[in-house]
User: Which sequence fits this backbone?
């Protein structure tokens, strides 16, 4: 618990530090010290969660089909604060977390053109996604990951599915979460809020 609280303190301090900088997410010397800080504050025990990425990495790009038609690519969202939520209809923890994502994140920021949130449904048809949205009461967009190819860019395919990735305007990962834990979720909400203020 102490390690987790310490991490949250460091993470929030980092984001606040960005807000007080030149507004370009860079340190005054231009030497890339901010990038080093991002890498240094890796999510605690992230290796135990079987992530293939870490805080400070550029988020791997992908293109995802949307059930209602069309597609989106992560690179097209550059310049925005992005949240990726990996999910599936058979995931009980995902179902528990999704209404909180809807109420505490999506409903607050859905009209902000500088924010994007996408659920990524693993290995299920579009009909299952619609059933999941109805069951959990969410309205944010959820795309298709039919072969877990997108999931496999971020975590080992044998790993548990419940996880979120928070990405800054430069396309860098600033937070990784696993499972649904209240304190960590609250920290994620605060980090998104602070990134959007920058």
Assistant:
């Amino acid at each position: 618990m102490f390690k987790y609280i310490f991490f949250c303190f460091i993470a929030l301090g980092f984001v606040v530090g960005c807000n007080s900088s030149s507004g370009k997410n860079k340190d005054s010397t231009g030497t890339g010290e901010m990038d080093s800080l991002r890498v240094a504050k890796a999510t605690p025990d992230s290796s135990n969660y079987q992530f293939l990425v870490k805080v400070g990495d550029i988020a791997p790009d992908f293109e995802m089909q949307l059930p209602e038609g069309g597609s989106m690519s992560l690179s097209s969202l550059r310049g925005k604060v992005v949240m990726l939520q990996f999910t599936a209809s058979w995931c009980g923890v995902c179902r528990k977390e999704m209404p909180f994502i809807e109420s505490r994140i999506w409903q607050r920021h859905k009209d902000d053109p500088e924010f994007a949130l996408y659920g990524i449904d693993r290995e299920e048809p579009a009909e299952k996604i619609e059933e999941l949205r109805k069951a959990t009461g969410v309205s944010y967009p959820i795309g298709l990951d039919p072969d877990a190819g997108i999931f496999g860019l971020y975590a080992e395919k044998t790993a548990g599915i419940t996880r979120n990735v928070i990405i800054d305007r430069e396309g860098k990962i600033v937070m990784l979460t696993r499972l649904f834990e209240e304190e960590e979720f609250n920290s994620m909400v605060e980090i998104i809020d602070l990134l959007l203020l920058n």
